[in-house]
Each structure stands twice: as structure tokens, then as C-alpha cells.
């Protein structure tokens, strides 16, 4: 397993993260356990802020909270000067309860409900990213009724397909559920409509071409096409865009062979393309917003499991089962995502066997890793799976009524619980037995 951030193998032959021996974390918090390297998260935040500051352009770096949304993460993002991207009332509520400044919150999503829009307006968020005509009309009607003006960006699809590992990770192409297409004229019509609304302030446009991207060409092409669109809109409609949001999608290393760029390289390519293609369109270059999520928290997360049973099929494979699975990491089942792992309590021992890591759910597809090299695995061993900081906790479920794990932040030898492990009571907290069923049970 590739060691990220502050991860290392200590003198006891144990994996250590943030100065904390994971065997001690297991003893205190149990497993499965999400472990977040706080120092690495903060480093990634600062890399974005420093790279954009060096560009000389106006900017906002908005953490995409869908990657990992808990109050402690919202507070950390605020401390590092980031804005916040939310896509639901739940993410918005989490941010507000954490004390995140509402004026630095951007609300995304292709199907915002009237209740979500009202909640966001009442909170005083900084901007909506409008995704379709229905939403534009809702925003105008609600803002008019509340006698306020709301800031909006229009999400557009520039016709750029990201080089993502899975088709679901591409979002900037013409055939997408998101946004107004530039190529067929829908985006220009949206600009015309939005500009005519009395209670909407059009700040600019938003583009997101996909996720887990390892090159800059797609971003540069998107900038070029958005610049062309911006020039056309100014010439034909007299509308200027003070803000251009280029989304996220910056990749991380999950397994050997993944080749992400440094944050500074992505930012230099984007800001260079903006300076090249937007110069001369308006007197001032637009402010650039981006929305990294995975690249901030992805490789800072490790999931710790306890090994339980195993099953060896001679000549075929050996299955090793852990006490978690697709309930805490659905990405292998959804996207065929790949991960690396090691035995955290015997981290420096040589590999002796090839095994496949199975989850405990009653599903044949509940497999975390196929064919990983490990020392001879024994029941009770601790398995650490790397790079689980993004889209693991946030996509976790209670399938089979399995309780979701705890989350701890670690740094400088200190661990802090930021999400408690769910209890059995939590599992049934919202269950209700109707009176008629209860009476029938009594009668029997």
C-alpha cells in the first residue's frame, strides 16, 4: 500500500497515521473505522489557496462537501479560508450547524426543491448554481415573493468529455443530466432568460467536466469553449460574466499506475488558459472559482477493518472477509473502483499470499479488493484500505441494517472523534409500528 501524508510504519511494525498507532485507534474506537489525516487535508487546502494566489487572478476555492460532509470538515474548510459547495438541504444544514459562513456557500444540484431554495435564501447563501429552466423560474418566483435578489451561476455543458475511469464520472459532455448545453443554444437562451429576471443576479457560468482526471487538456479545452461562449454572449446579448466556475474533478492516486498531477500543475494550467482565452473579452479577467472535493480529502482517508473469516477455493482464490464492506465503501460495487491495502498490525512483514477482500453484506458483489498481495492473513488481523476519504462515509448506507462506522481525525499523535459509531438504537430510531399492526400482534 502506498503511504500517503503522515502515514508510516512504526517501530512496532504497525501502521501509524498522524502519529497515532492504528492498533490503538482500533482498541479505542473499534472497527470499521474511518481515519482522516487532518494534516494532509489542511495541506491540500493550502496548496489550492497558494496556487491561486500566485496566479494573480481573483478566485474562490469551494470545497465540494459531497465528497465528505460532516460538521468537523465544514469547520476545517472554513478555517482554511475555503468556500463550500452543497447539493442538498442536508449538506446545507450540516454546514450551517457547523457555523460555516452562509455567504461563502454555493448551492448545486439538478433538482433543487422549493423547500431547499427557500431554506438557502433564508440562510443568506452566496450563490445558486442553476441547472435548468424550471429552477430558474422557481428561483425568480421565490426570490420575488421574499423581496430579495439572489446570485446565480448557470451550469453549462461545454461538450468536453473527461478522461474518467467510469462513464458515470463524466459530466461535461452534451448528453448529461446536468446543465444547459452550449452547442445547441440552450445555454445562450438561459442567459437571456436569467438576465431578464428582476430578482436574479447573473454572476456567470459554471462548468464541471468530470471526476478523477489526470490531465489538464480537458480543463484547458473547457476554458477555451467557455471563453468563446462568453465572447458570443457579450457581443449578442450585452451580458458579461464576472465569475467563471470551472468545477472540480482533479484526480488522486488510488493504486499503482494512477498518475495525478500536483495541485499547482492543475491550477497553473487552468489559470494560464483563462489568461490566454479571456483576455480582451472584457476589461477585467473573470474571477475563477473551483470545487475540489476528492483531491482535498480522498488520499487523507484510510478505513480500518478487522479480519474475520476466510474461504479458500483450491486453484481459484482465497476470500478474506472483513467487518465492513459495501455499506462503508460502495464504490467498488458502483464504479469498479480499485484500492490498495496492507495488514496494519503486521505492516512490514513480507507478502506471502494473494487474497480477495470480501465484505460482510449478503451480496455476492460485496467485494472491496480483488487479488491483493498480503502477508499470511489471520482472523483478528487489521486491514487498512487507503484513499477512502472521499465518497466513502458520504455514500455509506445501513444495508442489512449494518451500523455506519465512526470517523476520527488524527494529527500530532492525537485522535479526535468527529462522528460517533451508530448504535443499534440509531438503526431503529425512525421506525414506527402502526397501531393497527401492534393491536394485531397483541391479539395473537
Automatic annotation (TrEMBL):
UniProt: substrate binding residues: 294, 331, 335, 363, 391
Binding-site residues, pyridoxal 5'-phosphate: 249, 291-294, 391
Superkingdom per UniProt: Bacteria
Enzyme active site: 362 (proton donor)
Chemical reaction(s) catalysed: meso-2,6-diaminopimelate + H(+) = L-lysine + CO2
Domain Orn/DAP/Arg decarboxylase 2 N-terminal per the UniProt entry, residue ranges: 41-297
Class of this enzyme: lyase
Gene Ontology molecular functions: diaminopimelate decarboxylase activity; pyridoxal phosphate binding
Keyword annotations of the record: Amino-acid biosynthesis, Decarboxylase, Lyase, Lysine biosynthesis, Pyridoxal phosphate
A Pfam family: Orn_Arg_deC_N
PTM annotation (N6-(pyridoxal phosphate)lysine): residues: 66
InterPro entries per UniProt: Ala_racemase/Decarboxylase_C (IPR009006), DAP_deCOOHase_LysA (IPR002986), De-COase2_N (IPR022644), Orn/DAP/Arg_de-COase (IPR000183), PLP-binding_barrel (IPR029066)
Cofactor(s) needed for function: pyridoxal 5'-phosphate
SUPFAM superfamilies, per the entry: Alanine racemase C-terminal domain-like, PLP-binding barrel
E.C. number: 4.1.1.20
GO BP, one annotated term: lysine biosynthetic process via diaminopimelate
Pathway this chain belongs to: Amino-acid biosynthesis; L-lysine biosynthesis via DAP pathway; L-lysine from DL-2,6-diaminopimelate: step 1/1
Family label: Belongs to the Orn/Lys/Arg decarboxylase class-II family. LysA subfamily.
Function summary: Specifically catalyzes the decarboxylation of meso-diaminopimelate (meso-DAP) to L-lysine.
PANTHER family found in the cross-reference section: DIAMINOPIMELATE DECARBOXYLASE, GROUP IV DECARBOXYLASE
Record's subunit section: Homodimer.
UniProt cross-references to HAMAP family, sorted A to Z: LysA
Protein name, UniProt field: Diaminopimelate decarboxylase
Lineage, highest ranks first: Bacteria, Bacillati, Bacillota, Bacilli, Bacillales
Name of the encoding gene: lysA
